[in-house]
Request: fold
Amino acid sequence: MKSSALSIGDAAARFDLPTHVLRHWEDVALLHPDRDAAGRRLFSDDDLVRIGVIVRSKAAGMSLDQIGILLDEQAPERHRVLEAHLEDLARRMADMERSRRMTEHALRCRSHDITTCPRFRAIMDEVVAGTGRWRDAEPAADAVLPVDGRSSTEPAREGRGAASGG
Reply:
């Protein structure tokens, strides 16, 4: 599959990358393009596939060291690196889910300032007091407060302050 022979500029343009990125990846031994008689890099189809793997892996949060192991067919730790990356992805996805739930709540919350939202304050009070951890402080996904932010046992607020509750 050595048919392309693209210049560094053309190869970089295919992936919307600056050329210095491809040079860096070559410097850290992720890429090994051929050279023409004048010493200019020539990127083959195989090189382009490798660039695609690097770009996709970077987008997935892998480090260049991890990607190097992924691309090294002789690396015995390949599965360990992939398993660790899957664990990292699971943590990041859980963080994103918490962020999505917080954003959805903020969208429905009557508190225009999230720091005055009773639900957010309940989470932060534990963190601020040192009795809870940030990642563990959020209520379970199925713990949904009404739009007005009051639990069924919390009394309704009267007057102007009622619209500012979370």
